[in-house]
Amino acid sequence: MLPAHPDNAVPPPTPKAPFGGRWVLVTGASSGLGRAIAIELSAQGAHVVLCGRDETRLAETATALGSATYRVLPLDLSNHAELVPAVQRIRADVGPLYGLCHAAGVVQTRPLASTGVDVVRAQMDVNVFAGLELARAVCRRDVMDASGGSLLFLSSVYGRAGMAGLVGYSATKGALVAAVRALAVELARRNIRANCLSPGLVMTAMTEQSLGLLSAAHVEHLKSAHPLGPGLPTDVAHAAAFLLSPLSRWITGTDLPVDGGYTAQ
Ligand code: NAP
Fold first, then answer.
1. 231 within ligand 1 shell (Cβ under 6 A)
2. 105 lies in some domain
3. Which of 2, 3, 56 has the alpha carbon at shortest distance from 30?
4. Angle value at C-alpha 112, between 171 and 201, nearest 5 degrees
5. Cβ of 89: how many Cβ atoms within 10 Å?
């Protein structure tokens, strides 16, 4: 009998807390998907930096973490000049960072005729520019853990599938998918991975705002366009935790649809 190839040895069980106390900065942690992701990361052993504008809702997220280790970082992400100094303050406080999850985002639903440069730029400012500036801050050699790290950006099914009224928003989400490919290639030599996750319809404050502009029939149509139906914030959070954690150590430069089959059609 041939000796077992070492790669065929019985693998160790998957750790229940794969983050092992690594620090992850989560934007959008005051609401919806970012909040659910922060809670899930914490449950999987991460220490989390909760970033958002609304301090009351950030405190609610912190309460939901129970006895976990966290910091709160109130920030307006459209003030780009504040982002690098804010990350450096966090680094000085907690030590090296391992991850960034950019879940903060804004959407303006408008026809092309009223989608001027200012409308596109306002969405770019938060969805794209803030995410890339935070990545720049987190990936500095004096900030990120020397063994590497993981960056995750929340894109959207509308980064790859069209929808009337979302020209500006879709441009921001497609930009993230393109940017992670370049980040993945550039940062691989430092063992830093970069990925996107593209949710379909999940009920949050953002979707309530967007769906509120549509007729009941249109909302029903959107829901039924998801073969598995609309998702829950935890559906996104579980996938986000995997892509951020060391369990996905060989995955980089991807965009994972988490959309109940919306883009499979
Ligand atoms: P949400 O509930 O509206 O939350 C948006 C978050 O972004 C809030 O925490 C908000 O913080 C933060 N944010 C917005 N502008 C900010 C700014 N200038 N500075 C700092 N923080 C800012 O939205 P969500 O549904 O959870 O969406 C999260 C991400 O998933 C977004 O990127 C969105 O595009 C994407 N996404 C969502 C869906 C969905 O169905 N829900 C689908 C596809 C993609 P404050 O409230 O504290 O200001």
1. no
2. yes
3. 56
4. 55
5. 12
CA of 70 to the centre of ligand 1 (A): 20
CA 202 to centroid of ligand 1, rounded, Å: 12
Q: Tens digits of per-residue pLDDT, 137-169?
A: 999 999 999 999 999 999 999 999 999 999 999
Query: Residue 155 is part of which domain span?
Result: 17-203+233-253
Average pLDDT over residues 21-36: 98
Residue 259 falls within a domain, yes or no? no
Integer Cα distance of 67 and 30 in angstroms: 18
Give the end-to-end CA distance of the chain in Å, rounded to a whole number. 48
Segment 96-116 mean pLDDT: 97
Is the CB–ligand 1 distance for residue 154 below 6 Å?
A: yes
What distance in Å separates the CA atoms of residue 46 and residue 241, rounded to the nearest whole number? Answer: 10
- Report whether pLDDT(45) > 60: yes
C-alpha span between 210 and 187 (Å, rounded)? 35
Q: Domain count of the chain?
A: 1
Distance CA 260, CA 83 (A): 34
Whether 4 maps to a domain, the answer reads: no
Residue in the block written with tokens 């940062």: 187
Residue nearest to atom 2 of ligand 1 (CA): 32
Mean pLDDT estimate for the chain: 95
Which residues make Cβ contacts (< 8 Å) with residue 88, sequence separation at least 6?
Answer: 137, 143
Pocket flag, ligand 1, residue 199 (CB < 6 Å): yes
Neighbours of 121 (CB within 10 A): 13
Q: What is the CATH number of the domain that holds 194?
A: 3.40.50.720
| pLDDT of 93 above 80 | yes
Tell whether 12 is covered by a domain: no
Strand (E) or helix (H) holding 154 = strand 149-154
Q: Which two tokens stand for residue 147?
A: 């063994």
